[in-house]
Amino acid sequence: MNDDLVIIITAGLTATACGLLGPFLVLRRAALLSDAVSHAVLPGIVATWLLLHTRAPFAVIVGGAIFAVLCVLAIDGLRSTGLVRSDAAIGLVFPLLFALGVLGVTRYASGIHLDLDSTIYGEIAFAPFDVWTIGGVDVARSIVVIGSIAALNLAFVILAWKELKASTFDPGFSQTIGLRPQMLSRLMLVAVAITAVTAFESVGAILVVTLLIVPGATAYLLTDRLAVMVALAVGIGWIGAVAGYWGAVVGDSSIAGTMGLVCAVCFALALLVSPKYGLIATAVRRRRRARATATALAAER
Amino acid sequence: MSGAAALEVRRITVSYGARPVLWDVDATFPTGSLSAIVGPNGAGKSTLLRAALGLIAVDSGQSLISGHPARAALDHVAYVPQREAVDWDFPITVGEVVAMGRYRSTGWFRRVGREDRAIAAAALDRVGMAAYADRQIGQLSGGQRQRVFFARALAQETPLLVMDEPFAGIDARTQASLLELLGELRDEGRSIVVVHHELATVRERFDWALLLNVRAIACGPVSESLAPDMLARAYGTGAEALQWAG
């Protein structure tokens, strides 16, 4: 497989894995969770180093994932006390974990190079160089890993579709019909944590945070159907992957950065020209209404 | 168990922090009647409903639905939360919301079948909203939104309906037609418990009322539980009580 294709497919699969979950985060007002997770993994890396003395990718992913899951469950637990709102809960938990990580690094690992960038944050440009041979065929490791996560997320969202929809929309009601919204919320958050950590390792943190939030927020402006919103989020992520890669090659710039920029441009376009909720459409409607009112008032006189 | 009340709460106490919101509340809502929970703001009306259905933790007490512990009998109840409980900008259609009324009978991980969709459609038709099935819920007026919530509850086909302030901020015409509908449901043999704060309509349309102000002040037929001396105890005396009673 040629290198360009590996990078585009890796990014596209990351977009798929993230786009399936991102809309639910946006609707639950927990979009910043992905950013929290990107910092909360540091103590996991330190713990892995302390216990196993390794910076090997698999061990680091597992260590990071454990703390990522801890992070999202602590946020969910804090929120469910009713004493702390969602945004504050996110802001309370991840700095604590990050601080623990920083303390751990300075105390136990000051002699070695142990930080997020050198351990768990991957770089998508290197994806083609890390190859697994499966059944005699060379496949980029990132495609296998992220592809599996995307497939798991797809299965989760399809299987629990109506449950996720009802518990996101109306948690109180869904509890009375036996749906266990709290358990569903935790499952969703664990899926986000595992997706994020795995994808960090393949494509870097900024692209994951972007793909979990921006396509979902963009799709929200474009449709009134949840299913369409999820499909659009995945599609916009793919646009970011393809156009972003092309832009990075043409402009000789950072791949993850350009992909993120394309996603942001998609959002800005939706914000302006979305037929229903866009700023332009809203302004046109308002002006039309004002004119109609003026005409009606004039006719009454 | 025959002869059991549709909903009964026994000695329920709930507090938020140190402040009791409900104190040792006993109440019974008979089967086949249209009951109201009335009381001043902050009396704990919504909290009582949520506690009775096991949606929030209680400090003590228990609640029974048709004589069974509430948690084990939730399939007998259709719960209508306050309208503010949900995000009306959510990307979902009227038809999808009403179909949620069939989720319990559909079961986990299954798709809503044709028969269940027909039941949901009939429920939507009964509240006069059949033409709106494909609309996004945010495009509806307050009264229409409440009709949708009613339809979802109807679609659940439960013997007990429990509604939290369904008439708050609703236009008079919608309130009249929904009250009419509740009367019909009662006549069909269903039991209905509604949090409401307009005493005049409760007197006129309801059979039974719990008068609540943190404690249960009176619970019984409307003529008894909303007697002037009871109202004075719930709302205070003098002008204030008269205003509420009016």
UniProtKB/TrEMBL annotation, chain A:
Keywords: Cell membrane, Membrane, Transmembrane, Transmembrane helix, Transport. It is a multi-pass membrane protein. The keyword Transport applies. InterPro entries: ABC_BtuC-like, ABC_TroCD. Its main location: membrane. It is found in: Cell membrane. The keyword S-adenosyl-L-methionine does not apply. Belongs to the ABC-3 integral membrane protein family. This is Metal ABC transporter permease. The chain crosses the membrane at residues 6-25, 58-78, 90-109, 139-162, 230-249, 255-279. It comes from Svornostia abyssi. Pfam families: ABC-3 (PF00950).
UniProtKB/TrEMBL annotation, chain B:
The keyword Nucleotide-binding applies. It comes from the Bacteria. Pfam families: ABC_tran. Keywords: ATP-binding, Nucleotide-binding, Transport. Signal peptide: none annotated. GO terms for molecular function: ATP binding. Residues 7-239 form the ABC transporter domain. CDD domains: ABC_Metallic_Cations. Belongs to the ABC transporter superfamily. This is Metal ABC transporter ATP-binding protein.
